[in-house]
């Protein structure tokens, strides 16, 4: 059985619903406080999926995700590097995305993890934004996004603006590492327009991967859009289903990522078998 | 020599762009660069590791100063940093980074922010900008032009360290054998220091001081300063609620017992087996049954006075403070929802009012108060990972000197923990007193006594605190998610107003006494006097009663989570409240005197109905008037608040604050706190402060009806619905104000008992008055209108039954439930015509109860497609909101209402809900409601709100009117 580890502590705060998402998809997992992992880093050897959930680690002080990433880098770097180099999956959501980019786990453009190549920084509005947005899944290598074409999920962040050198952007695009972009509800590119692109992110980037696609760093929250009742249009979907005598599906877009994670390991298990 | 690490952000930094925007509104075209500055004296601070840990090289450039390495073209440099002793959360995180890379001992690091401004502006403009974006009560400002910046090698490295005179650290005797005039001075301005200065308000009346004088006479000694300060905290209006407890006119048992507590008692008795209350009024929050496995708790607090002085600090302290009330419920509940409510003056005005007669202390402009308060709750709620979906903002210019800041937290706790009811707790004699969380500083001294008086010239700046949500989050996670279920403590409570003097004093009531060794309390900096340590309201602290054998395990566990905790004393059963300081006894009071020694103060009241003659208004152009009404501050969209507040963290949001494709700010929200349970928690609130100008009885009943009706409309089970009361009164030493209070409390007793909706928790703030000076230096007093906020919390058995305000399909039928009467006294419409009127809405409780019961049946049978309660602004506003939310036309006919058109549109009669119904449910719906439902039209093709013979308006135009006023805040 594949094991999920969801990190917690120092202001991370989405660990419970994130674990719930994995469990709903049939995986088993634990919530692990970062201090406990630092005390016993070997535990990563038994883990197949590492999730750094959303939150406000260190209150976003010194830049969102920065201080938590510094802590991980100083205490856990070798273990982390070994973990992502194995055939494992890693996801960073929102604050977790900011932590992964600060760690340089997403996105190295070559195969060397550890260098910060992108920044996820202050929204253009300099304001926190909590709202539902639409995402397009771009051509990518990521098992997390297999078969997914679009996502309707919420964002909730004050620092979600991806920025990088033009050269880095080019390479990421060439390598299919820009996995998710903000679009308008009709699927057309947001082109930086608020609120479709809620933070002014470069070329509407909402999520990126490492070259293998196994490490995904994503600002929007799939775990807050995993059930139909969480959706902002739930009231309308529910009404329509009632009128037509239908039953609404329990799951919504965001669950696909967690189901994909489960499927990835079932497939690889079959291979070894 | 301190080091400054200067981190320059890239030139399109969002924060810099916002400063440019602020300058643009002042008419100045500029470019602004942002530099984050970290200052420390530790040698490690200059190490490349530390500097590297503070900057992201992709978008930032770091350098070490002095001298500065900033290579930017600018005209003015503006730096904003904190004053000594003010909570510096960013500095705190930088200190931790410094420790991570190996700094020991003095790792103190302080943050500040430097703005480099390029543009043709004068020093006055920079000063004006600084006034906009900083608060001199807590922050320091330095400004340099480019020339002196270059000459000096940049800005000065400032270490805002607190240095206290250690000589003050003893407990003094206070001579109470003094004339009444001196006693009054002690009460109003505080104990006198040797140099003649005073220590700040005790808020003790002469009557109370005389009782204390008598008590110490009989003890044969003078009280120590710490004893007097403790009595002042414990007997304060804030802690003892003396006005609600005192005999008032013929009501010998006081307003709280006679009306509020009795209402709940009667309702619970009547419900018998169906009683859902579990813990009411006795704990930090009220608790009701959620389902077979869980309780939900609720508490709403106010944090008004601090928010007037430092809006950000006041509000963030308020929200993280009420989170702790949740953690302090029973064995500790997990915070699952926050809510908020703000009362401000018009942010587009800037009245010239001062705190002092020499006009040097100007009050903060309403826009600054609003922005600071909104940001404070944003930071506190978001950083804590608690969704903040439900709230409101209400405007009246009488909130100019003192805003009202309501903050609430809903908690979730298993009904039993380790086989015992989770809401029970008891400190036992011999248990150790353990305080966990932040350290103690001078911040928040006299908060409790200060909030019990009017704001005036002498209001102490030390009462200002800034919450630190991450320190608290670490403690909350450790205690509630990990430690609670280990059963290591016997009792737990929050450290709020009055600090340890209140929390330990109250918890010791469970065991029968305490002994605190005050020197064991960890301090932020040395040199504090014992009395200051004891009553400091430094934030993020929780007090526990822990059996001695468990203390090590508990403290070690917390340490592994980065949380500090210490044993500071023992609970006893000797009936004494005892504090020692390095083995010297500095406080030794009997618990009886401490808690029950305050003399009764019988209150007398008078009451006169207010209001003026019903006005004779000219009929308006209805299209224009509807748009004007939609743009009124009490009606227009508050989306700018809702989108800044994370309302779907924890993954539990069902019905959010912004509803429909047209995004209307809804008054009720639904949350599913247990992901695997179909049940939802439905929240709303109600208030009508302006009705108090006519009659507080109806102000109160309308507030209660609004809070109830909003959640009923959203689909709550009317039989599973509880209420919270927050009275924010003014001048509560005047008989007329007390008369208004008495009527309001009686009113909510009457209506709550009729509805069968019990009160489970409440809080009051009795002196919301501003005493200051006008532009001519003449004294003015501005009293907030007597305000009752009623908050509702109910359970919906399955969120599938939830009902939004959004119309669903063209062709659906529109009905008005309830009666529209000539009731515009105190209404938004009359106010827009600068009239008050007389006919304040009167709640017909009997009729409403029947209607809400029918409504419950209709919800069960899924007959209702959408619903919106009719509140501020009346039916016209409700219809416009429906059309905007759905982006669908409405064809409406209001001819059944036998009133002049403006009254039909804008009457604020209570008990009304507008619903839309699918045509196939018409028969069942009409059968359910009978004559209580008025068919008024249908959801229509087209993009217009069409009210027959009255108006026909484009929805886009209505939407613009509704959204424009506060969009850019």
Please, could you describe this protein's structure?
The complex is a heterodimer of chains A (about 270) and B (about 950). The mean pLDDT of chain A is about 95. With about 270 residues, chain A is α/β, with parallel strands linked by helices. Chain A has helices at about 15-25, 35-40, 65-85, 95-105, 165-175, 235-245, 255-270, and strands spanning about 5-10, 30-35, 50, 90-95, 120, 130-135, 150-155, 160-165, 180-185, 205-210, 215-220. Chain A has a nine-stranded mixed sheet with strand order 2-1-3-4-11-10-9-6-7. In chain A, strands 5-8 form a two-stranded antiparallel sheet. Chain A contains seven helices and eleven strands. Chain B is an alpha+beta fold. Helix content of chain B is about 35%, strand content about 25%. Chain B contains 30 helices and 38 strands. Chains A and B meet through helix 1, helix 3, strand 5, strand 6 and strand 8 of A and helix 1, helix 3, helix 14, helix 16 and strand 22 of B.
Question: What's this entry about, in short?
Answer:
The complex is a heterodimer of chains A (273) and B (969). Chain A has 273 residues and is an alpha/beta fold.
List keywords for this structure.
heterodimer, A: 273 residues, alpha/beta, 9-stranded mixed sheet, two-stranded antiparallel ribbon, 7 helices, 22% strand, globular, B: 969 residues, alpha+beta, 7-stranded mixed sheet, 30 helices
Which structural class should the secondary elements of chain A be placed in?
Answer: alpha/beta
What is the number of helical segments of chain A per DSSP (H or I, 4+ residues)?
7
Strand residues, percent of chain A: 15-25%
Task: State mean pLDDT of chain A (0 to 100 scale).
Answer: 94
Please give the largest β-sheet of chain B.
7 strands, mixed
Major sheet summary line of chain A: 9 strands, mixed
Element string of chain A (H = helix, E = strand): EHEHEHEHEEEEHEEEHH
> What's the count of strands of chain A?
11
CA gyration radius of chain B, whole angstroms: 29 Å
Parts with pLDDT < 50 across at least 5 consecutive residues of chain A:
none
The number of helical elements of chain B comes to 30
Number of strands of chain B: 38
Tell me, what's the shape of chain B?
Answer: globular
